[in-house]
């Protein structure tokens, strides 16, 4: 006897309701060190959790893009030098090691990814609320303190989100997933300067009234991230444990030695962390003083300094647009060419175009060179993370903390760049500092492509077909306490 259309519709409705309940319900934040097989999920099974995590990328992209715009306008509004304004970058990126190596990484290893996401969002919301009294008092120190708290939250998010993107799903596409997510982050870095230029300073200029506008924007950010933290609390997302990663390393034969050796002997991790330090420091120095570069090198015409600053913010948004385009195009290229090769080509492009910007004076050419620099910067950060944690097995979470902590370079290189700019009264000449750090990053890219101890491990993971084939249940309906299937095998 065939079922009626009404019965089929009712059955379909029940299935959809069960799926919704499976995605949203209160459950423990502590995962434990057990096999969840989340590292072997197929592409379709990872869509929902990776969509949620990708939202986080937009958040810290927006915060970073907004920071670059506020840097220059604080120089004008609060009457501070380029060197002192670098305190914003120092506060922002100086907070990352505390999260990546401290509380964020500890919670990641003892509780899981979801707990770190909730902590990071909560800290970001608290920091955003602290922007309100800082703006009322016109206190640069207050802005730096609030920025530090925001960055503490973002550091937690980045400590968990980058490795989560890399390890959740088929390992073959780890770099592709993280680069696509970082491309969404790059969209946030475009919107930040646009908002800063058109919403903060278009009608109010560099004045006290513009700081009042900043208050309301950060209040809106606080409300949004608090709501998102609630969503994560009730969402059921797959957790990847150390045991999962050890299992994946065995399956790909990439971590046969890594699992047996202590973490302190994983020298590939520290090489990646140093490369991240150098690269991030140089990237932040360029973005942080991009507007200063425009003011110094753009043909004079009839524009005063304030008008040039507004123009610089708009040009920065365009440069960040090139950055976003580079991430999307780089992600597409990585489907055909190994990520380590793409990384090498792009970092060479960065060095060439950034070097060309040093000698430019009173022309549009220098800005064009920085546009190309940001385009080629695009894939470097996420690819360093993904390549650095490949084949590390049970050490993956701790390794990700060290590599993300390399972001502290963003607190070290910009002040050095600003000091050179102040001494020589030339932001263009100061671009020699980022070039030196990009060259140091190039050394790591060369190791990834020509040193067997780096290259072979990366290629073995990249050639794995785990998660790409179908899966069958050993026992139909066997699930863990969070509703995810356990005990599956490849077919």
From TrEMBL:
* UniProt superkingdom: Eukaryota
Transmembrane parts of this sequence: 47-67, 87-108, 115-134, 140-157, 178-201, 216-237, 269-291, 311-329, 341-360, 366-387, 399-416, 428-451
Q: Which InterPro entries match?
A: MFS, MFS_trans_sf, MFS_TsgA-like
Where does it mainly reside? Answer: membrane
A GO cellular component annotated for this chain's UniProt record is: plasma membrane
Q: Which Pfam families does this entry report, sorted A to Z?
A: MFS_1
PANTHER family linked to this entry? L-FUCOSE-PROTON SYMPORTER, PROTEIN TSGA
Q: By what name is this protein known?
A: Major facilitator superfamily domain-containing protein
């Amino acid at each position: 006897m065939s079922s009626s259309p009404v019965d089929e519709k009712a059955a379909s409705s029940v299935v959809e309701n069960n799926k919704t309940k499976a995605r949203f319900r209160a459950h423990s934040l502590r995962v434990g060190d057990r096999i969840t097989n989340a590292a072997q999920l197929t592409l379709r099974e990872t869509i929902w959790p990776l969509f949620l995590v990708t939202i986080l990328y937009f958040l810290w992209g927006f915060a970073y893009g907004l920071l670059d715009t506020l840097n220059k306008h604080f120089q004008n509004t609060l009457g501070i030098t380029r060197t002192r304004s670098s305190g914003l970058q120092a506060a922002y990126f100086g907070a990352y090691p505390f999260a990546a190596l401290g509380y964020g990484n500890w919670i990641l290893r003892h509780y899981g990814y979801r707990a770190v996401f909730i902590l990071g969002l909560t800290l970001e919301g608290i920091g955003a609320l602290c922007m309100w009294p800082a703006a009322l008092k016109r206190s640069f120190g207050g802005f730096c303190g609030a920025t530090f708290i925001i960055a503490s939250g973002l550091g937690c998010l980045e400590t968990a989100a980058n490795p989560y993107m890399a390890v959740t799903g088929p390992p073959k596409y780890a770099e592709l997933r993280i680069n696509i997510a970082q491309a969404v982050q790059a969209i946030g870095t475009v919107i930040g300067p646009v908002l800063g230029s058109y919403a903060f300073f278009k009608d109010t200029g560099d004045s006290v009234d513009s700081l009042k506008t900043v208050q309301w924007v950060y209040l809106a950010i606080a409300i949004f991230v608090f709501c998102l933290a609630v969503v994560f609390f009730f969402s059921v997302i797959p957790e990847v444990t150390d045991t999962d990663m050890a299992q994946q390393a065995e399956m790909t034969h990439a971590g046969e030695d890594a699992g047996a050796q202590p973490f302190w002997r994983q020298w590939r991790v520290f090489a990646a962390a140093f490369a991240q330090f150098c690269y991030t420091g140089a990237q932040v120095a360029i973005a942080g003083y991009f507007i200063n570069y425009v003011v110094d090198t753009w043909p004079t015409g009839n524009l005063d300094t304030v008008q040039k600053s507004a123009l610089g913010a708009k040009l920065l948004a365009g440069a960040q647009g090139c950055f976003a385009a580079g991430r999307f195009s780089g992600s597409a290229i990585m489907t055909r060419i190994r990520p380590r090769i793409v990384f090498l080509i792009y970092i060479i492009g960065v060095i060439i175009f950034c070097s060309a910007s040093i000698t430019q004076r009173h022309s549009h050419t220098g800005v064009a060179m920085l546009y190309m620099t940001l385009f080629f910067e695009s894939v470097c950060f996420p690819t360093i993370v993904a390549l650095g944690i490949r084949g590390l097995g049970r050490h993956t979470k701790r390794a990700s903390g060290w590599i993300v902590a390399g972001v502290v370079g963003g607190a070290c290189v910009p002040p050095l760049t600003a000091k050179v700019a102040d001494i020589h009264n030339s932001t263009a000449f100061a671009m020699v500092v980022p070039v030196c750090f990009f060259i140091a990053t190039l050394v790591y890219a060369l190791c990834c492509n020509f040193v067997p101890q780096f290259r072979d491990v990366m290629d073995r993971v990249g050639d794995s077909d785990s998660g790409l084939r179908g899966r069958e249940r050993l026992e139909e309906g066997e699930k863990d306490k969070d509703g995810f299937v356990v005990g599956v095998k490849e077919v």
